[in-house]
Amino acid sequence: MKKNYNVAIVGLGQVGLYLHNELRIKKKEIEIKTGKKLQIVAISAKSINKKRKYKINKKIFYKNPFDIFKKNIDILIECIGLSDGVSKSIVERALKNKIHVITPNKALISKHGDKLSEIAEKNKVNLEYEASVGGGIPILRTIKEGLATNRISKVYGILNGTCNYILSEMEKTRESFKDVLKKAQLLGYAEPGNPKLDLNGYDALAKVRILSALSFNKKISNNNPLMEGIENIESKDFEIAEQLDLKIKLLGITEIIDNKLFERVHPCLVKNNTYIANVGGVMNAVILDGKPIGESVLQGEGAGPGPTSSALMSDLLSILRGNIKFPFGISSSKRKKVQIYDVNNYVNSLYLRFEVKDKPGVLSQITKQLARYKISVQRLIQIPDNAKKKASIIVITHNVKEYYSKKCVSSFKSNKNIIKKPIVIRLF
Amino acid sequence: MKKNYNVAIVGLGQVGLYLHNELRIKKKEIEIKTGKKLQIVAISAKSINKKRKYKINKKIFYKNPFDIFKKNIDILIECIGLSDGVSKSIVERALKNKIHVITPNKALISKHGDKLSEIAEKNKVNLEYEASVGGGIPILRTIKEGLATNRISKVYGILNGTCNYILSEMEKTRESFKDVLKKAQLLGYAEPGNPKLDLNGYDALAKVRILSALSFNKKISNNNPLMEGIENIESKDFEIAEQLDLKIKLLGITEIIDNKLFERVHPCLVKNNTYIANVGGVMNAVILDGKPIGESVLQGEGAGPGPTSSALMSDLLSILRGNIKFPFGISSSKRKKVQIYDVNNYVNSLYLRFEVKDKPGVLSQITKQLARYKISVQRLIQIPDNAKKKASIIVITHNVKEYYSKKCVSSFKSNKNIIKKPIVIRLF
Predict the structure, then answer these.
(1) What are the residue ranges spanned by the domains of chain B?
(2) How far is B330 from chain A (nearest CA, A)?
(3) Residue A291 host element (H or E)
(4) pLDDT band for position B104 (50/70/90)?
C-alpha cells in the first residue's frame, strides 16, 4: 500500500491558507492516525507576493493553477470556488489523472457533482466534499456512513450562517436589514463584495441539493425550486413575530412526498420553544428524520476557515486511510433520476404583510382578494403609521395551497393602495 | 478483495433481534452500497423456542454461543451485554480467530476496550462499537473520522436516556421518583429487573470513559471518578429549580484540565435557556469543544432497538467497505496512559438541600458548619412543612472546592436535627 502522498492546494484564500497551515502543523498527527506521510508539493493562487497570515513556500508556488500537474500529485485540494471556470476544469482534469480531489465548493458539487462523481468512480479515486455543507459539521459523512442504512424521509435546517447571523441580530437589536448586513460584512460573516448568493437563498439551496442527493440516493436535482431569501424582511416582522411567540429563520428543506422530491429554501416562522428557533448567530444546524434512527440533530459552526478546514481534514484522512468510496455513497449507476414534487400543491399557513395607504376600504380590498383565492384568515393585525399616512396589515392565514397564494400575492400588483409587494413568510 | 461475508449474531434480545431483521430486509441495499454479499450463517441465544417478534432460522441456531465458531464466520455481532463472562470470551476468541467484531456493549468496551483493541490490531480485524455511546447518534465515528484532526478539549452531554426521561417527566408532572421510574419501566425505557446501573450513573460513566479515550487519544481510564445518580432527587428539587430558572439534568462530562483527565457523572442544574436544558425525554445529546471546529452538538434518540441497530449497521458497512481501522482511531501503542485530575480540586457552585427538624437553632447550625468549611452562601431558601414539623433548607453556594463540600456534607451525619444526608446538585 502507498505510504507517501503528495498534495497540491489551489486557491489560498481564507480557507485554503488556513488548511495549508493546518497540514503543516499536523503532519505528525496525520502520520500517527493514518500511517501515511504527507507532503505539500504544489500551491497556486492569484498572487505570490500578497501579504498572508501564514507563510507559504514560494519554491512550490505556481501562478497558473494548471501548472501544478507538472508535479507528481496524489491529492488535489481545490479552494478556488465558483461552479465553473478554473475550479471545474482543474477538478475534472485531476480526477481524470487519477488524482483524489477534496473541495469545499458547494456551487461546483451541486451543479456538476453527478458528472464529477462518474469521472471519479471510473478512475477509482475519491471525490470528497464534506466542507461544502454545514461547515465543520460532519453531516455528509454522517449521512453516507453513520446513518448509512437508514431510510431518510426529510432533512432540514439552518444552512447559511450569514443569513442566520443577520436574522438573529435583527431580532435582537431591531436594526434594519441594511445596517445589520453592514455589521456582518465588517465581522467577516458576509461577503464584502457581493453577498447576494448568501442572502437570496442560493447558497442554502446548493447545500439542499447536495443533502437530497445523499439522503435519498438520487441524482442531484437541477430544477428551479422554491427559493426565497431574507432581503425583504424588516424589523417590524420581528416585532410581530415576537407578539406571536415566533422566530424568523431561513430554512433549507428537502423531503420526499409521494415518491417525489420537494426541495425549498425560504424564510420560516418557527415556534419559539422549538430547537431550531434557538439556533442563533452563525451556527448551522441540520435535522434528519430517518428510520430506524428517529430524529437526529447536528449543530456546529457553519462557516469560517477553522470549521471548514476541519471538514477538509476529515476528507483527507478518509483518503489516506485508503478506501475508495463512491462520492455519493452508492455507485452513480444506481442513483436514480429525480422526480420533482409540484410546488403548487404545497400547503402551508402563511404570514402576509401588506404595506398600504391608510385609506378607507383598503382592508376590505385585501380580505376580498384573499377570499377570492380561497385563503381564509386566522388572524389579522393592523399597525397604523399615522405620520406617514400608512399602515401595515398582517394576515396569518389558515392552510393554503401555494398555487393560490402565489396567484393572490401577484394579484395585488395592480392595486395602487398597496405600496409594495406583500411579504410572505411561511409558518413551519 | 473478498466479496462474501458470513455473519454470526449472538444474543437475540431486543437489539440483536431487531438487527437480525434489518440485516435480512436490507441485504440488497447493503450490496448496492458496499458491493459485498452478506449471509447470516449462525445465531445464538438462550432459548430457541421463545416467542419472538421476528422470525429466526432455526437451522442456524446454536444454544451454546461458542458453537458458532464451527461455522466459517467473517463478522461477529455480540448483543449479549455485560462486561465479562460470555460476551468478553466470545469477542476475544473471535478477534483472535481474525473475525471482525461489532458490539453495542459499553460495559465490555469501557472495561476491556484497550486489551480487545490490541488483539484486534494484532490480528488485523475491526472492533467496532458505535452503538455503545449515544444510541443512534454516530458520535464515535464523528470523533474518529469527522473531527479527526481537531484538538478536542471537552465533551459533555446527556448520555443516559432512562435518566433523562425520568428527570423530564418528574419536572413535568411533579410525580415522585418511584412513580416515574415505574412508568419508565412500563414504557420500556428502564430495565424492569434491575435499573440500578442506569440510575446510579454507571451506564453514563462507561460512555464517558469511551468518549474520553477517543477524544483525547488516551487509554481508557479505570479509576473511580465522581459518579452520582438521580435516585435521591425529589419533586421538590424541581420546584426550587423552576423558581431559579434552572433545570435538572444528569450530565456526563469529560475534559482535560492541566493535562490531566477529569471525568464525572452527576446531576447538574443547568440554565433554562441553554441548549442542554431543552433536551427532553429519552433523547441523548453530546456537545464537543474542539479546535478548530468550535462547539459541535449531536442529538438523537439514545436508546431502543431502532437507533441502536442503526449504529450497528454503520459499523457493519464500515467493515464491508473494507478498511481496517484502529478501534480507537490511533494505534494502541500510541495511546498514552491517563493521568487523573484530582477531583478534590474541582470548584463549583452547589445546590444543597437539607431536610431538617423544625426547631430553633437548626439554621444557624447549618450556616455555622458551612462557614467552617469555607463555603459561602449565595442564596438561602427555607420551605416549612408545618404538618410534619419539618423544613427543607436550600442553600446555593458560591464557588467551593469539592474537598471542602464533601467534608462539610459528611460532617452533618452526626447532627440529629438533620433528617437525612443533604442532597447535592452541582451548578453547571
Answers:
(1) 4-132, 150-302+337-343, 344-427
(2) 5
(3) strand A283-291
(4) very high
Q: With a cut of 90, say whether residue B365 has pLDDT above it.
A: yes
CA angle in degrees (0–180, nearest 5) for B23-B160-B424: 175
Q: Note whether B290 contacts A298, CB cutoff 8 Å.
A: no
Rg from Cα positions in chain B = 24
Predicted local confidence at residue A323, as pLDDT:
78
pLDDT interval class at B142 (50, 70, 90): very high
Whether the pLDDT of residue A87 is over 80: the answer is: yes
Across chain B, what does the average pLDDT equal?
Answer: 95
Average pLDDT over every residue of B120-144? 96
CB pairs under 8 A between A and B: 158
Q: Is the pLDDT of residue B1 over 80?
A: no
Looking at the DSSP bridge assignments, the partners of residue B349 are none
- Phi, psi at A418, each rounded to 5°: -100, 115
How far does the CA of residue B313 sit from the closest CA of chain A (Å)? 7
B104-112 average pLDDT score:
97
pLDDT tens readout for residues A9-59: 999 999 999 999 999 999 999 999 999 999 999 999 999 999 999 999 999
What ipTM is given for this predicted complex? 0.88
What residues pair up with A253 in beta bridges, in sequence order?
A: A156, A264
Residue B303 confidence (pLDDT): 80
Is residue A11 within 8 Å of residue A45, measured between CB atoms? yes
pLDDT confidence of B324, banded at 50, 70, 90? confident
Which of A30, A295, A306 faces B294 most closely, judged by CB atoms? A306
Q: Which residue of chain B has the CA closest to A284?
A: B296
CATH number given to A4-132: 3.40.50.720
Half-sphere exposure (CA, 13 Å, Cβ side) for B320? 26
Which residues does residue B428 pair with via DSSP β-bridges, in sequence order?
Answer: none
- Mean pLDDT value across residues A325-347: 95
Residue A294 sits at φ, ψ, to 5 deg, of 85, -150
User: Cβ distance A302 to A165 under 8 Å?
Assistant: no
Name every chain B residue with its beta carbon within 8 A of the beta carbon of A306: 291-294
Which of 3.30.360.10, 3.40.50.10540, 3.40.30.10, 3.40.50.1820 would CATH assign to domain B150-302+337-343?
3.30.360.10
Contact B33 A322 (CB under 8 A): no
Whether the full predicted model's pTM is greater than 0.90, yes or no, is yes
Q: Any bridge partners for residue B300, and if so which?
A: B284
Q: Which of B14, B142, B276, B308 to mutate to test the interface with A (most CBs of A within 10 A)?
A: B142
The fold adopted by the segment(s) A139-302 is Dihydrodipicolinate Reductase; domain 2 (3.30.360)
**Could you say which of 3.30.470.20, 3.40.50.300, 4.10.910.10, 3.30.70.260 is the CATH number of the domain covering B344-427?**
3.30.70.260
Q: Exactly one of A207, A218, A219, A249 is catalytic; name it.
A: A207
For an interface test with A, give the residue of B149, B288, B315 to mutate (most A CBs within 10 A).
Answer: B149
So what's the pLDDT on residue B191?
Answer: 80
Contact criterion met (CB < 8 Å) for A298 and B293: no
